[in-house]
Amino acid sequence: MAGSTTAERGERQQKSSGPPPTRRFTPPPLRVIIILAVALVLLGAGTVWLLYGSQWLRAEEVSVSGTRVLTPAQVRKAADVPVGAPLISVDTEAIETRLRRRLPRIDSVEVVRSWPHEIGLDVTERTPVLLVQKGRNFIEVDDEGVRFATVSRAPNGVPVLELTLSQPGSRTASLRRFGEDRLVREAVQVAGALPAAVARDTRTVKVLSYDDISLDLGGGRTVAWGSGEKGAAKARTLTALMKATPGARHFDVSVPTAPASSGN
Questions:
Q1: Torsion of CA 94, 99, 100, 104, to 10 degrees
Q2: Where, residue-wise, is CATH 3.10.20.310 in the chain?
Q3: DSSP strand E in 93-171: where?
Q4: Domain 130-262 belongs to what architecture?
Q5: Rounded Cα–Cα distance for residues 82 and 18 (Å)
Q6: Where in the chain is the domain with CATH 3.40.50.10960?
Q7: C-alpha to C-alpha distance for 130 and 158, rounded to whole angstroms
């Protein structure tokens, strides 16, 4: 009788030895568990005390960046940061809300904690694109049509808006249909679409009606712009027209596919 093969002998040995023993989890002693629990409680209590009760992590300084017209002192005063309070408890959202409410010139502000003692205020101010004259003062209007500040001197390079009454019937109809705020937004849209060189040279943006907006430039030049629609196309056309007829005094891009210039 032939003897068993090596494979058969290995199979019998595996069956006789049985499955490998499983390792059982042995919980740590109760004393170790208690010590760990007490350590975690102490660590948590220490962290809370460090953040709220100690004098090490308190709001002691307020830094301001990004201002142009506003002064850091104005921003600090409006922010009203609770100096001396625990840094972790300073309500950054409330500070942002106060700043935008008290200083309408601020478009946005980021309030950040800078450990261990500082609150940082990174301010972005609104930029005027138009001025509305009111008596001897000027109201600044940004690119969203927001009237955010009144100044006694007109900033350089910002055109003045005129709601002109040269065509009473047309203007009255536009005011009745669109309202003054809508007409101002149309003028803002036009000012925002102007090529940079033209924007710097624009003295006045005149609104006769919704679709009759014109520009007075330096040197007595004028531009008939039309409505605020197709601003990008009108800007490109105006740039090309000015290059093609540098001596012209009057430009019409109200229909950008059929521009015209005159008055050499």
A1: 160
A2: 61-125
A3: 106-114, 118-125, 130-134, 137-141, 147-151, 160-163
A4: 3-Layer(aba) Sandwich (3.40)
A5: 73
A6: 130-262
A7: 6
Q: Give the pLDDT confidence of 74-96 residue by residue, as tens digits.
A: 999 999 999 988 888 889 999 99
Cβ(216)–Cβ(206) below 8 Å: yes
Yes or no: say if 146 and 126 are a contact pair by the CB < 8 Å rule: yes
Tell me: the pLDDT tens digits for 101-157?
A: 999 999 999 999 988 889 999 999 999 999 999 999 999 999 888 999 999 999 998
d(CA 245, CA 77): 53
Nearest one of 48, 60, 173, 158 to 114, comparing CA atoms: 60
Buried b vs exposed e over 170-201: b needs ≥16 C-beta within 10 Å? ebeebbeeeeeeebbbbbbbbbbbbeeebbeb
- The CATH homologous superfamily for domain 61-125 is membrane protein fhac (3.10.20.310)
Q: How many H-runs (helices) and E-runs (strands) does the chain carry?
A: 8, 12
